[in-house]
Amino acid sequence: MGKISNNGKNHKACGFDRVEDFIFSISQSEKNQLKAFVNFILADSKLKKAIQKKDWLAFAIKYNGPKQSGYDREMQRNYEAFSR
User: Is residue 2 within 8 Å of residue 28, measured between CB atoms?
Assistant: First the structure.
């Protein structure tokens, strides 16, 4: 659901005690989806470290698995486009 893919099983890492609250929140707005995703990253030390170092490949592998299919390059392109 939404622009940011995040599984309901991660609701606690996203900042929600109940999966129902997580689903309701992310269904309300993209802002809520982004807040939940940021919480998810901050709850995982490897994701947090990778994003801080701009290590797109490490982030993509940790988030999507070893067959992440170019997600790292997409992240780098978007970072470069939006950080100007």
Answer: no
Longest dimension (CA), the chain: 38
Determine contact, residues 50/58, Cβ cutoff 8 Å. yes
Interval 22-61: pLDDT, tens: 999 999 999 999 999 999 999 999 999 999 999 999 999 9
Residue ranges of alpha helices (H) inside the chain are 19-28, 30-43, 45-52, 56-64, 71-82
Placement of tokens 């807040």 in the chain: 35
pTM beyond 0.90: no
Handedness of CA 45, 48, 50, 53 (dihedral sign): negative
What is the rounded distance in angstroms from the CA atom of residue 65 to the CA atom of residue 27?
Answer: 25
Q: What angle do CA 73, 78, 81 make, to 5 degrees?
A: 125
